[in-house]
Design a protein that fits this description.
By secondary structure, the protein is an alpha+beta fold. It has one domain: Tetrahydropterin Synthase, Chain A. Helix content is 30%, strand content 31%. It has helices at residues 23-30, 61-76, 81-84, 95-106; strands at residues 3-14, 37-48, 79-80, 115-124, 127-131. A 5-stranded mixed sheet has the order 3-1-2-4-5. It is elongated, with a radius of gyration of 17 Å. The protein starts with a strand and ends with a strand. The model has no long low-confidence stretch (mean pLDDT 97).
């Protein structure tokens, strides 16, 4: 399978907190991440489909950029994820949940002959979450 990947960047903040726990429990489980803090995220969006013989491309990367910026980056960039994005009102703003959220925003957004195959989100240079659907 041939895959093309485009990388995006955004900055966002979050705080891990469980309202059903005491402050002591939250600090014990989440440590310093219980406090509001931010990350410079790197997002990779990977697509597959037939190569257009006229262009040599799987997808028009300018259109891919517009879709991802409109549906994801414009929502997350400079947001406090747990407070500003309704999807996270009942979920922790973890990298694992972020890739699920991003997948939901993008999965049906591309032309019918272009399929989303993977979302990879780097929270730090050494930590990333990846989702391939299902």
């Amino acid at each position: 399978m041939l895959i093309i990947t485009k990388r995006f960047k955004f900055c966002a903040a979050h705080r891990y907190h469980n309202t059903e726990w005491t402050e002591e429990q939250n600090r014990a489980i989440f440590g310093a991440d219980h406090k509001l803090h931010g990350h410079n995220y790197d997002l990779e969006v990977s697509l597959t489909g037939p190569v257009d013989p006229a262009t040599g491309f799987i997808a028009d990367l300018q259109k891919v950029k517009e879709i991802v910026e409109t549906r994801v980056i414009d929502q997350l960039d400079h947001a406090q994820i747990d407070m500003d994005i309704p999807w996270f009102k009942e979920r922790q703003p973890s990298s694992e949940n972020l890739v699920l959220y991003i997948w939901e925003q993008l999965t049906a957004a591309f032309p019918a002959d272009v399929q989303l195959v993977r979302i990879r989100l780097y929270e730090t240079p050494t930590i990333y979450a990846e989702y391939s659907g299902g």
